[in-house]
Amino acid sequence: MVVDKVDDETVDRLFHALADTTRRDILRRCVRGELSVSRLAEAYPMSFAAVQKHVAVLERAGLVVKQRSGREQLVRTDPDAVGRARLALDELEAAWRARVDRMALLLDDGPPDGEKTRTGRPASEENDPTEGPGR
Questions:
Q1: Closest CA to 30 of 72, 68, 71, 63
Q2: Which of 31, 47, 52, 127 has the most crowded CB, counting CB atoms within 10 A?
Q3: What does the alpha-carbon distance between residue 51 and residue 19 come to, in Å, rounded to a whole number?
Q4: Phi first, then psi: what are they for 13, rounded to 5°?
């Protein structure tokens, strides 16, 4: 599955799910292979129900897929979900890089003609060598 853009609601669910240490650990363990919820629960000092809730958050975020096999619920990762998280971060990075590039241009070129500088003087008068200091 190829995703061009990730909507804000999906991004919120992804990063909420990834914000918790236990959920990140569950995700890492499931990347190595499919595990039952009961097997996952053995590794944590919390109740089975608490681990089920963590898995449910990961499932709502689309990071894992849960499938029933007999009496067990098996959990596996969804590889496309990691791509969605990466895409969301790439979008943020692109926005920040564009902002930094615009700031760099402004700093390199100074303010456009006609705009006032921090001193309140027009940009064209700011560095006028014919004026003495302290005008």
A1: 63
A2: 52
A3: 15
A4: -65, -40
Task: Using alpha carbons, list the distances in angstroms from residue 113 to 31, 73, 108, 117, 135.
Answer: 56, 67, 14, 10, 20
Number of continuous H segments (helices) and E segments (strands) in the chain: 6, 3
User: Please, what is the Cα angle at 101 between 107 and 125, to 5 degrees?
Assistant: 20
DSSP state of 112: P
Pairing of the two strands 72-77 and 64-69? antiparallel
Is residue 76 classed exposed, middle or buried when 0-12, 13-18 and 19+ CB atoms within 10 A define those classes?
Answer: middle
Cα separation, 113 vs 107, in Å, equals: 14
Answer yes or no: are the C-beta atoms of 44 and 22 closer than 8 Å: yes
Helix (H, G, I), strand (E, B) or coil at 37: helix
Which tokens belong to 108? 């390199």
> What is the per-residue pLDDT across 90-123, written as a single tens digit (0 to 9) for each?
888 888 888 888 888 888 876 556 555 556 555 5
